[in-house]
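Hey, I'm writing a tutorial for new members on how sequence and structure tokens pair up, and I'd like a real worked example in the thread rather than a made-up one. If someone can provide the structure for the chain below, I'll link this post from the tutorial.
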Amino acid sequence: MADADVPEACPGTASESAGKASACAGCPMQKMCASGEAAKPDPAVAVIAERMKAVKHKVLVLSGKGGVGKSSFSAQLSLGLAGMDQQVGLLDIDICGPSQPKMMGVEGEQVHQSSLGWSPVYPVDNLGVISIGFLLNNADEAVIWRGPKKNGMIKQFLKDVHWGDELDYLVVDCPPGTSDEHLSATQYLADASVDGAVILTTPQELSLLDVRKEINFCRKVGLNILGVVENMSGFVCPKCSTETPIFPPTTGGAEKMCSEMGVKFLGKLPLDVELMKCCEEGRAYLSGIHSHDDPALLSAAIAEESRGQQALRAIVNNLRTTLESA
């Protein structure tokens, strides 16, 4: 049922008055709610919980507004973790705007099925990626689906993808906002011990307005907030290293908002031309085991990383510490 069909005063499927309240009159779901069928748990939840037992940490990446770099962050977080010799899965549930095949450098690849389930696409040997982008006939094809069909696709991804015998991190790249996909992900993962959500924002109040809504959404559905990342936090000139605030934090930015709302601040990530190139070309922004086989060379490369790379590495390490100490 489309959101527009839901009565404004809907009591909810779990309510004793579901299907019986005056607000339910004329609703196409009235008979199902009144019978109690709508309140019954989805059997897929238990199947997904069993599948997710092989995943140590499950992290949703959210944003209140589009265009703040959520998918770029999800991609580089996953590549960064893989570069730290972790087994990683990246699940793209942005059904209408799947970016991960491009950002992972695996456009044109296909998902294969086996007796164990759907097999992810692997840009590197310890990072698997699943996206509806792999199921489209061409990259320019529009996905014009209503809520129920999108929810069904998310359920199938969570239920049927075989991530391997063991996964250290599953990063779920969600679409912006607080809509069907977010509700589906949290409901289907209800029994899967999700660690929580990382929320992306940019410094200006226009973005923070929607992030506050995202934080309240997480609290309403019982989703733990691991922290907030302020993306595009200034531009560092590659020539003179001068930092310019492209999006001025007129109300104090994400750090002040986190302090006011009692949420952890994970760090700031500046705009960097090299980061943009890495996302366009499907490359890791951070040095890791895939770019440097020799530990000594890797240590030297990390020591010479740019300010932007250092900022992202600090955020990844901060998140890992948060997850391990939970």
